[in-house]
Amino acid sequence: MPTTVLDIEQHLLLLELEAPFNKRDVQLARRRMAKRWHPDVAPSGRQYEHERHLKAINEAADQLERLAEGSRGGKVSENAVRVSAAAARREREEAGRRAYEAEQRARAHASDRAKNDPFGSRVPDHSVVHRYARCISYPEWGVGTVAGIYFSSDPTARGEEVQQWARVRFSHGVRTVPAGSMRFVDFSKPDPAEERVERFMLAAQRAMAEGEYELAAKRLVYARDAEPRNVAVLRLMTLAFWQAGNLDAAARSVRDWARVDGNRPAPHRFAARIYEDIGAIDLAEEAAERAVKRGPSDAGAWERLGRLRLHLMDREGALHALERAFALGASDDLRDLIAKALAIEPSVARAT
Hints:
This protein is α+β, with helices and mostly antiparallel strands. The chain contains 13 helices and seven strands.
């Protein structure tokens, strides 16, 4: 059994750290990678991959911390990393040589079997190598180029399964990605629509969590193009455009949403608010009226309808809506609105 060589360079790649480094640098890198690959931030079904990758990161950080503590001055130099990398490369070359010899023996055995037992197996030996991949956990990184595939060094000696991870070059930089979180890209055929929707929805939600609503809206446009009648996409796109201040685009989005999900009051409530922000009070009043018809128990919707009718000088309509809101237990501000409606002269009020 060959001796295991500590590959410092591989640990540095896992932590996205460069030499020289000390214990504090390792701790900061561990914290940064833990925020990125914690299972709590993993998409649905990928928690196990994040957990395994984070475990590998922690083990690498523990070894690097111990190495830094035992080094002169508490710092590991670039020369030490180069020496370790050279030793690890020699060890990998030796392991590759042994694997090659084993493969040649297997090929000779297969050739002998094909000659003497041609119908023993009809499955051809082949392999497909992919170069481009996406990270399922962070789809907003886009398509990256796989720069290298790495495996954990001899984990079978401790009874553990082999871990595989890759260094992928994205447009914003190189990232260390666990193999289970990668999805290889075949440019000969388009991605399924549901995969594109999931990818752009996740990217948009992260952008909105960071306050980048304009960027989220752009990403949601791609999700909408993949599935034009997806209610979740249309709802989130309406909110993103509205928060970004693009009221015209928000109005178009909410109309698309209402065409797909018009039997529910939510799109009409959003439409009333957006039209009110635009200044189209008549359109806002019509949308608010549709909202109360589909959700008659919503006190806030009745209050909004009454306030909009008050702007349009519709005395009777405003009083009717505000009284319904008051009966459903709306806020105390209704008293002032009802007083304003009663102050409108019937002759001045708009004919209903």
